[in-house]
Amino acid sequence: MTSIALAFLSAGIGAGLAIIGAGLGIGKLAAAAMDATGRQPAASGDIRTTMIIAAALIEGATLFALVVCILLAIKT
Amino acid sequence: MTSIALAFLSAGIGAGLAIIGAGLGIGKLAAAAMDATGRQPAASGDIRTTMIIAAALIEGATLFALVVCILLAIKT
Amino acid sequence: MTSIALAFLSAGIGAGLAIIGAGLGIGKLAAAAMDATGRQPAASGDIRTTMIIAAALIEGATLFALVVCILLAIKT
Amino acid sequence: MTSIALAFLSAGIGAGLAIIGAGLGIGKLAAAAMDATGRQPAASGDIRTTMIIAAALIEGATLFALVVCILLAIKT
Amino acid sequence: MTSIALAFLSAGIGAGLAIIGAGLGIGKLAAAAMDATGRQPAASGDIRTTMIIAAALIEGATLFALVVCILLAIKT
Amino acid sequence: MTSIALAFLSAGIGAGLAIIGAGLGIGKLAAAAMDATGRQPAASGDIRTTMIIAAALIEGATLFALVVCILLAIKT
Amino acid sequence: MTSIALAFLSAGIGAGLAIIGAGLGIGKLAAAAMDATGRQPAASGDIRTTMIIAAALIEGATLFALVVCILLAIKT
Amino acid sequence: MTSIALAFLSAGIGAGLAIIGAGLGIGKLAAAAMDATGRQPAASGDIRTTMIIAAALIEGATLFALVVCILLAIKT
Amino acid sequence: MTSIALAFLSAGIGAGLAIIGAGLGIGKLAAAAMDATGRQPAASGDIRTTMIIAAALIEGATLFALVVCILLAIKT
Amino acid sequence: MTSIALAFLSAGIGAGLAIIGAGLGIGKLAAAAMDATGRQPAASGDIRTTMIIAAALIEGATLFALVVCILLAIKT
Amino acid sequence: MTSIALAFLSAGIGAGLAIIGAGLGIGKLAAAAMDATGRQPAASGDIRTTMIIAAALIEGATLFALVVCILLAIKT
Amino acid sequence: MTSIALAFLSAGIGAGLAIIGAGLGIGKLAAAAMDATGRQPAASGDIRTTMIIAAALIEGATLFALVVCILLAIKT
Amino acid sequence: MTSIALAFLSAGIGAGLAIIGAGLGIGKLAAAAMDATGRQPAASGDIRTTMIIAAALIEGATLFALVVCILLAIKT
Amino acid sequence: MTSIALAFLSAGIGAGLAIIGAGLGIGKLAAAAMDATGRQPAASGDIRTTMIIAAALIEGATLFALVVCILLAIKT
């Protein structure tokens, strides 16, 4: 077993953990966004903007982590 | 046991963890979407649009992670 | 123990974890769907459509992960 | 210990994890179904249909995972 | 230690995990059933039917998993 | 250490996990049963019948799992 | 280290896990019983009967599991 | 390291886990007992009797498990 | 490493787990006791008696477990 | 690595786990004490007495466990 | 296996854990931000500013941790 | 690897676990203290006294545990 | 594998755990800050000041821990 | 691998765990502080003082633990 083996192990599990974080985070904020829309349809555009800003922050960090994972997965 | 063995291990478990994240996230936001629809049927179209945008963000990251996993699963 | 052994290990556990995610996700959104139906029987068709779209997103990712698992389970 | 040993290990634990997911998911949505029936007995048929559709989605994925497990359990 | 050893390990733990899932699931839906009966004694028959359908779905998958476990436990 | 050793390990832990499931499940539904009795003493007999049906479903699966465990515990 | 060693390990941990299940289950249903008694002192006898039936179901399964554990603990 | 070593390991951890179960269970039911007393001081004696019956059921099973642990701890 | 080593390991961890159980249990019931006192200062003595009975049950089992741990810690 | 090594390992982790239990327990009951004081400032002295009795029970068991840990930490 | 192997392992898993923290944190605060916007659309700008300050604090620490991870992932 | 190695391992992890306990405990009770102050500013001094007594109990046990950890960390 | 390997392992995982703590903590307090702003826009400046003081306390400890991690990551 | 290796491992993970505790604790109490400020802006100074006292208690213990970690991280 060479050193690369653990890089492969870490790539898959790290990607899985990152999606747990991203899923819980975006799921929670989008749930709140739809809740707020349902309560105040008039503020719908304003809420959707806020939602996309916050989701982008999580998405950005997630993609950064996934890039770390893909770096590890394609080591040879 | 060659280095590939741990890649296989990580592919399956990583895919499983990613689905936990995606399931919890999309489940939570879709639950909120249906809750909001039930409370304000008039805003139904608006809510469904928001739901699909947010679900797409999670789905995208999940598929990215699953691609990392499938890369690991088909190593030879 | 050859490299395939860990592929087998990962296939079963990954499938189990994926079902945990799918079960929690679809369970949560279907619960919300029935809750909303019980509160607004008139919007029943609209809610069921939203439910099926969201469930399909989770189901799709789950089947993708299960295909990764079955790929690992039938390695020889 | 041959490679098959880990297939056996994964078959049992994977089946157990899959039932945790299925149990939590179907339990949650059926609980919501009965709650909604108790609140609106008139919509009982409509709710039961929705419940069976959603439970079938979870049941289907669960059986798929159990088939992966049984494939692993009967390896020789 | 032969390969069968891990089959034995997996049989017992898998059975235990499956009962956790079944117990939580049936416990939750039966709790909701009794809650609904207590609120609407008139709909009692209707609710009990729904409860038995849903519990049967969980029970069926659980027994399937237990059969996988017993297959593993009686290997020689 | 022969193969039987892991059968013993799995028997005890599996039995413990099964009781966790059974305890949580029966505890939850019996709690709901008593709650409903306290709210509607008139429906007491009806609720107790439902409780015993549901508890029997969990108890049956639990005993099935315990039989798997005892099979493993008395291997020689 | 002979095979018996793992039987001893499993006896103690299994007994501990079984008590977690029994404690949570009986604790939850007895809490509900006392809650219901406090709300309807008139139904006190009826509730205590239901409580003892349900607690007996959990206690029985727990003792069954503890017997499995004691079988493992006194192996020689 | 002889076989007895794992018996010692299991004695301490099993005792700890058993106390977690007993503590959570008795803590929960006693909390409910005091809650009910605070709401209905007149039913105080009746509630305390119910509390002691239920606590005895948990205490009994816990002591049974602790005896299993002490059997393991004093092996030589 | 002799057999005693695992007895030492188990003594410390078992004591820690036992305190988690005792702390959660006594903490929960004492919280309820003070809550009830705050709501009904007149029943203060009655509630404190009930609290001490229940706390003694947990304390007793905890000390029993700690004695098991100290037996393990002073082995030579 | 001599037998003492595991005693050291267990001393630190056991002390940490004991503080988790003590912190959660005393934190919960003191929170309830302050809640009750805030609601009934007149009963302040009575509540503080009850709080100190209960906290002493947890503190005592915790110190007992910490003594077990320090016994293990100073072995030579 | 050289020392670098564990650096690779830690890079992927650490990135995954960091995203769990970032996702939960930003998800929670953005959910509160949208909730508050829905309740007081007039304070929308003020709330969004507060949200971005707090999210930046989490994002900053997350990126710091991801840089630690990428440092580990590109070691040779 | 000498025996001291595990003492170092246990020092760091034990200190971390102790802070989890202390943080959760003091956090919970201080939260309740501020909640009560916000509801009854007049009882502010009385509440702060109670808070400091309870926090001191947790702080004391925590420092005791940290001293155990530092004893382990400075072994040579 | 030299001693440095474990330093690398600990750097990544420690950084990840620290971000979980920081994310949950800052997320919770910023959520409360926005909640309070939404309820009392007039106190907005006062609340934001309190939020930044508390967030700084967490941020400071987090950066301290990250510095420990980076010290470990750049060992050679 | 020398003894120092485990000191490094413990330094990073211990620091991470300590931040989890500190983050949860300070996050919870600061959230309560802001909640109380939002409800009673007049008591703002009084609440902030209480918050800083309690946060200092957690911060102090956290820094103590981090010092233990840094002691371990700089061993040579």
UniProtKB/TrEMBL annotation, chains A, B, C, D, E, F, G, H, I, J, K, L, M, N:
SUPFAM superfamilies to which the protein is assigned, alphabetical: F1F0 ATP synthase subunit C (SSF81333)
Pfam families linked to this entry: ATP-synt_C
Cell location: Cell membrane; Membrane
Sorted UniProt keywords: ATP synthesis, Cell membrane, CF(0), Hydrogen ion transport, Ion transport, Lipid-binding, Membrane, Transmembrane, Transmembrane helix, Transport
Recorded topology in the membrane: Multi-pass membrane protein
Keyword Transmembrane assigned: yes
Record GO cellular component, one term: plasma membrane
Residue ranges occupied by any V-ATPase proteolipid subunit C-like domain in the UniProt entry: 9-72
Site positions (Reversibly protonated during proton transport): 59
Primary location group: membrane
PROSITE patterns: ATPASE_C
GO MF: lipid binding; proton-transporting ATP synthase activity, rotational mechanism
Segments passing through the bilayer: 6-31, 52-74
UniProt cross-references to HAMAP family, sorted A to Z: ATP_synth_c_bact
Primary role: Key component of the F(0) channel; it plays a direct role in translocation across the membrane. A homomeric c-ring of between 10-14 subunits forms the central stalk rotor element with the F(1) delta and epsilon subunits. F(1)F(0) ATP synthase produces ATP from ADP in the presence of a proton or sodium gradient. F-type ATPases consist of two structural domains, F(1) containing the extramembraneous catalytic core and F(0) containing the membrane proton channel, linked together by a central stalk and a peripheral stalk. During catalysis, ATP synthesis in the catalytic domain of F(1) is coupled via a rotary mechanism of the central stalk subunits to proton translocation.
Family the entry assigns: Belongs to the ATPase C chain family.
Name recorded for this polypeptide: ATP synthase subunit c
Species per Swiss-Prot/TrEMBL record: Cystobacter fuscus (strain ATCC 25194 / DSM 2262 / NBRC 100088 / M29)
Classification lineage: Bacteria, Pseudomonadati, Myxococcota, Myxococcia, Myxococcales
Encoding gene per record: atpE
